[in-house]
Amino acid sequence: MTMRTRLLRRRNIIRTLKKWIPKLRFILFAVGVTWLFVLPSKQYSKRTYISENALLPGQVKTYYSWSEVNEASVYAESIESLVNASSLEKAAAIERELRKSGFKTATQNFTVNILGKPITGVNVFAILNAPRGDGTEALVLSAPWKSKDGITDNINGVAAALSIGNSLKKYTYWSKDIILLISDGAEIGVQAWLEAYHDYQRSDMIGSPLLLRSGAIQAAVNLDFPGTHSYRALGLFFEGLNGQLPNLDLLNIVVRICRVSAYIPVMLHETGHIYQYNDDYGDYKSSLHNLITTMKFQALGHPTGNHGLFLRYKIDAITLYGKVDEEVNQQKFRFYEIGSVVESTFRSLNNLLEHFHQSFFFYLLPSPERYISIDHALALWASTGDDPNIQSAPSSSVTVTATPGSSKDAKHTVDDLAVALPYNRRPRRIAFPLAVLIGTHAAGLVILFVVKNHFDISRLAELFGIPGYLSTLSLTSSISIVTTSVLVTTLESRSLANSRSQPLRPANLTPSPDWAVLKCFSLAYTGMIISCLSVLNYSLAVFVALAVVIPFSLFRPTEQQLLRALQLFVLLVISPPGLLLLSGVDIRAFLEWQLSEYLVLGNYLLPFVCCTYWPTILAYGIIVFAPVR
Amino acid sequence: MWQPYRLVYLLLFNQILLISIYSAKTSDQFRENLIIKPLPDGKVLTHFEFSIHSSNVDESDYDLFPRSIGQIFQTYKARELHLTFTQGRWNYEGWGYPIAPSAGTGVELWAWLWKNENLDKNWRSLTNALAGVFCASLNFIDERSTVQPRLSFRPEGVYIDSELFNSAELRYGSLPHENVCTENLTPWLKLLPCKSKAGISSLLNSHKLYNSNFHSMSVHVQPVCQQKECHNSQLEILQTVSTVFDPVRESGKRDWSLYQLFDRDITRACPLAIESNIVLMLPEVEDYSIDPEPFSIQTVDSTKRRFGVYDLTKSKTNFKLMMKWKEAFFEYDINPIQPDVYAHRYFTGFGQEHGGIKVNLFNRNPTNSINIQYCDVIPWYLRLYMHTLKVTVNGNEISSGPSYPIKQLFYQLAVDRSRPSVMEANISLPADTITTLSIEFDKAFIKYTEHPPDANRGFDVGSAVITTLSKAESKWDSILYQQTQDGIYTETLLISLPTPDFSMPYNVITLTCTVIALFFGSMFNLLTRRFVALDSENRDKK
């Protein structure tokens, strides 16, 4: 009796679910998108707090004084006269200054081949050994020669770093060594230095080994104060390579110090939304803007400053950027405030007893003092059971996509429930769909290879008078088209053969069409990719999900030419070349930028797009063109 | 690389000794010396040496020799004992070699113990007893960190050749992260005959000593001989304190005075001391003035270095000393001079799975190759792979042949949770080169209870020790053997092992999971078990 009611109940639940899943998935998608816009609102963020009690930010008297400001101004002048000198001369001049101040110094030469041309540089660094310290831990104060745009000279930044170094040297309370790093170029210098410091070669950069070292680096602060102006506000850049973030405590201490002791305005990035200390939330628009900017940086995987490269080595780091403002009537700051903030920050970091670990590593910031924790932001797991109209594909139920929500929205998998459904018995042949997926991925690898060798190819192409990026673009597209069409043709011939050989099968034994199985696979695969990605690089996962979820769950082969053309068009739009063309960026510049990031810094956006995203689009291209029966 | 100044003292002591040895009524002789050396980078090294020679420690009647150390030494059958507490790093590149023989950060203890069946027990007891005496965590030197080096830490006392190695065994242990503070200094001062009440030791003001760039304090107990024939072997306890002050940091100038360094002057020599000297190593350049002028000036013949000597026993009033340089402010040397041999050790790689350890051994001597003994003790949780040991000289890998720098290699494999790996090598460093040894390891996944309370800080790995041996230019008979050894200590290192999240949410999750697992287990058991009513009569039949 009870058994029977239980079984009946189960069947009812399954029926309801089956009926609702197609609608549910749109609802969930809508909820997800809405959630993204609800996130910045005040209710969903909390005020930040210092999690590691030892840090005690802003509770020390800073000793950075006007005499050091004068010293910094002198440094700035001499640095300004050096900006056009060669790397070697610059490094020698800085090293001389540091030696004069009594630091142990060393230089590092590096060479790297980027975009077919060799780039060389010289890093200078100095170590302040903590008095009576055992030298097992270190903090880094870095200033690159070039600002984060790679063009402007970071004159004030370098000058501030030198004078702050001198002032830190006067005190005995340091428990950790302090490394002053003046790196050449923008990001490459730091990359070369970090590789050499950890003696771990990962790119084809050739750097001379370091003969001077300190212990394990606990945190790094990068100063980016371009030019010789005064600054309107302090921009905080924290997103690292591949969307990694530093511990929230590091950001918190800087913001707290700016608020309570240095009294200088801060903002996230250079969005222009200057943080009002009396109103920690700000307005919705600025919150949304801050959020989207962070997500954009994370998705691109681009380090927003030199600090971003430290994160790979589990070193929490942040860039302090001086935002120049032309307005005259604004309150402005220069060396005195920079020095005080950095000194105070280092005093706090000096208190660290352990590596940063207390606070969050995954967060979104709508304003400098409000955060959205990952558990709130993750993730509208819109669960998309596949189109039940595909009578043949119960296993296609797939959890796709990202964004907020509670576990109530958690994944529903039809498989578990599909106990006694009649269509379950239809044979599904998986060999061919699997082959298609493997084929498209192989094409993806070839595309990556082509893009990687973009510069050799473009040189060849330029001999024939074709712009280099166009040749790469056409080559990759043709690889995609060839792969797709070959697979589609095979599919057609297969289904033709099938229909000839088995004309008189009972309906429930007809094998499900190949495209349906393929679609199940693709959806399951996409779901898997997105969920994996969401814990590695949340923002990238969100953007991928937004792009593909709706088209992927709706698209299917059709007899109607117009519908087919529409589907194809959408696929073209969301394909990487389509997105590139639509976004209106300079394709050549973008390609070069991404390539150098991939080859030198190890940004994984390019391989991800080529080897994962592009192949799934190709697989869908095949689905769209597949024969219906 | 032997130290000329040491010889000077020996000579100096011997002169006074010859006079005093027969006149002294007590059997124990106490000497106190303070060596002050202005360092090239404007810092000032002060090195205190207090030694007591005793002929009758075997008996229970102690004169000046500290009873607490003497009894420990006797009870646990030690032949030689060396204990050093160090805070900070010795900067070999800027300061040259230290006067104190040991400078590894943290606490280092090594002892030669007479061979008997209780040797290991004696070692355990010795560490525990010394922990008690010096208020330090020496008792944490257990079998997991104790090793027996074969090449380094040779005996420093004077022995008959035949019993040098046969009758005693070496034990070595170190605690790299042990902080040194006043609580260690106070018991150390209590060992001195005059405590810190009179004489040179009255300068030892902990407020000033611990506000310096380097601080090291040690106790060495070893047998010595005073005469050529060595018919009355003596036991020596040598206590040293080395401190590096930085006057430049405070004033911008390198001028110093005793009062400025220690916040005290010396009122009088320790009345129990047969020798009480302040030795100022005079810089080679002449642009300074000293007040008062040295009572006598001596020169080492080989290096022409000059020493100003102040005999405190002849000073009747408060002794003040100051040194002034003729400069408005101190300018750092742009090209500092480097010592012949120094080393630099570091971890390579990142992440919590693999890693490597590399040591750069510098030989800056332009013409001579130098033989060194390298000793590295690596905790068991770093699992070394011997096949990855690579040797490069100036960046070129050398794997065999006559130019292969490693002449002899001893390697002890680690045993999990019971003993560390030890790598010892006899290395010949070619002239003017950087020799690099590198080895790779896997990081062990240790039990959660093995993590220290500050789990995210990481684990400290003690210094590697490079010893350069110079056979003693023996002033004694050839059957007696003594050698001086100079230790060069590398940095201590910090390594992070895979660390579980010890935070509160993690604890809550683990706890809840455990409760749920227990609950589920018992419920599941109840539900799946078939309960059958047994007939008691039937069962009896069966």
From TrEMBL, chain A:
It comes from the Eukaryota. GO terms for biological process: attachment of GPI anchor to protein. The chain crosses the membrane at residues 430-451, 463-488, 523-550, 562-584, 604-628. Keywords: Membrane, Transmembrane, Transmembrane helix. InterPro entries: Gaa1. The keyword Transport does not apply. Coiled coil: none annotated. The keyword DNA damage does not apply. One of its GO terms (cellular component) is GPI-anchor transamidase complex. This is 1530_t:CDS:1. It comes from Paraglomus brasilianum.
From TrEMBL, chain B:
GO terms for biological process: attachment of GPI anchor to protein. The chain crosses the membrane at residues 7-24, 504-527. Keywords: Membrane, Transmembrane, Transmembrane helix. It comes from the Eukaryota. The keyword Transmembrane helix applies. One of its GO terms (cellular component) is GPI-anchor transamidase complex. This is 109_t:CDS:1. It comes from Paraglomus brasilianum.
